[in-house]
Amino acid sequence: MSQFRDEQSSALNASRSEQKIAILGGGYAGLAAAIELNRLGYGDNVTLFDARLRHQKITQWHKLARGRQAHHYEVAFSHLAERFNFRFVHKAIDMKRVIADPAYELGGHFGAIVLAQGSHTPAKPPGVITLDQLRDDAHSQQLVHNLTNKSIAVIGGGPTGVQFAFEFAARGNSVDLYEARDRLLPTFDASLGITALKAAFAAGIRVHLLTEFLRYDNGNILCSTGGKEETRQTQHVLFVPGVKSTPAFTCDVFGRLEYQQGGKFYAAGDNSYIPGRGLNSKSAQAAVRKGQHVARTVFADLTGKQAQEYTYPELGYFVSLGPQNAVGYLLSQKTAFSGPVALFMKEAIEKQYNLYLEGLPVYP
Ligand SMILES: Cc1cc2nc3c(=O)[nH]c(=O)nc-3n(C[C@H](O)[C@H](O)[C@H](O)COP(=O)(O)OP(=O)(O)OC[C@H]3O[C@@H](n4cnc5c(N)ncnc54)[C@H](O)[C@@H]3O)c2cc1C
C-alpha cells in the first residue's frame, strides 16, 4: 500500500514539474512570455532567470546621453515578479550548458524552457564605450550622462548610433558618426537614411559613410575609407555597430526548438528566428510579440491544445533624431515621415510599453 502511495506521489511530482516553466532572460521577449503565461493562469508555474536585477527598457537608453539616469528606464524584477506572479531567480545562465543539461544548470526540472537571452555587443575594442558597458557599468553611464562640449565619435549608423549621435549633438558635443555602409539606417528603406542624413547635417553631426572603424588609440581614432586610412582626434568613442546573438535559435512556426533532448525548448526575442509570415527583426516590437506567441505555444503544449503559427506583421518603427525630432513609418517603409508627429509616435510607443509593464492589456 505504501509503495503504491509512493509511486502515486512521485507520479504527481513528475506531472507538477512537467507544468513548470523556466524563462531564461527577462528582456522584452522573456518578460512578455511571463506576462502572457500569467494572463493564461500559469503565472505561479513560471520561474524567470536573469543575470541582472532589473528589467531594462533598452529602447530608451539613448536618453542617458540626454542627461537622464538609467534607473528611469529600469524596473526591478522583484516588483514585476509580484505583479505578474512569477518567481525571479537572479542568475547568469550558461546557455550552452542549459541545452546540454537543463536540470543541472537550472537547479531542477522544468517541463518547458524559453530561451530569451537577447543580444550582446560583438566586440570590445580598447578604449571605447560599448552598449553592454552602458547597460551595466555605472561609471560608463555617468560618463555618458555628463558629456557636454566634448568631441565624440559614434561607430555605427543604425538606430542605436543615430539616436545617440543626435542626443550628444543636442548637448553641445562635437560629433562624428561613422558607418561602414553607404547610408545611415542601412537596414531600412533609403528614405529614412536620407532624412536622418539631412537632419544630421542640420544638427552639425559629421557623417562618414563607407568608413570602417579600425581602432582608437591615445585619443585618436583610426578609420579607413575606400582603403585610405585617416586619423582624427576625439575624446570619447561610443562603439555601437550592431549586436550579436550567440547562441541563436531557429524554431518551428510555433516557436519550439527542434532540439528537445532533456527538456522542451522554445525561443523568443533577438536570439530567435521563427519562420513563416511573422516579424523577425531584432526589435522590441518583434521581441514582445514573439514572447507572447511562445507563451501561447507553451500553454497549448501543456494543455494538449493545438498551437497557432507565428504571424505577427510589422506595424512600424520610429528612430529619434534628438529630443525634438524623429523619423519612422507606419505599416510600410514607403510611408516614412519625420517631425513632431513622428516624435509623438516614438514617445507613444514607449508609453504603451510602460502601460504594459503596469499590467494593462495594450498588446492584444
Ligand atoms: C539603444 C537601443 C535602442 C533601441 N531602440 C529600439 C526601438 O526604438 N524600437 C525597437 O523595436 N527596438 C529597439 N531596439 C532593439 C530592442 O531593444 C531589442 O530588439 C530588444 O531589446 C530585444 O529583446 P530581447 O528580449 O530579445 O533582449 P533584451 O531586451 O536584451 O533582454 C535580454 C535579457 O536577457 C538577460 N540575459 C542575457 N544573457 C543572460 C544569461 N546568460 N543569463 C541570464 N540572463 C541573461 C539580460 O539581462 C536581459 O534582461 C533598440 C536597442 C537598443 C540597444
Features:
single chain; FAD/NAD(P)-binding domain; 2 domains; five-stranded parallel sheet; 22% strand; globular; binds flavin-adenine dinucleotide
Structure at a glance:
With 364 residues, the protein is of the alpha/beta class. Helices cover 35% and strands 22% of the residues. The chain folds into two domains: 2-121 and 244-314, FAD/NAD(P)-binding domain, CATH 3.50.50.60; 129-239, FAD/NAD(P)-binding domain.
Write the layout of secondary structure elements.
Elements: H1 2-18, E1 21-24, H2 28-39, E2 46-50, E3 54-56, E4 74-76, H3 77-84, E5 87-90, H4 95-100, H5 102-106, E6 112-115, E7 129-130, H6 131-136, H7 138-146, E8 151-155, H8 159-170, E9 174-178, H9 190-203, E10 206-208, E11 211-217, E12 220-225, E13 228-233, E14 236-239, E15 249-250, E16 264-267, E17 272-273, H10 284-303, E18 316-320, E19 326-330, E20 337-338, H11 340-358
Parallel strand pairs: 1-2, 1-6, 2-5, 6-16, 7-14, 8-9, 8-14, 9-10, 15-17
Antiparallel strand pairs: 3-4, 11-12, 12-13, 18-19, 19-20
The structure holds flavin-adenine dinucleotide.
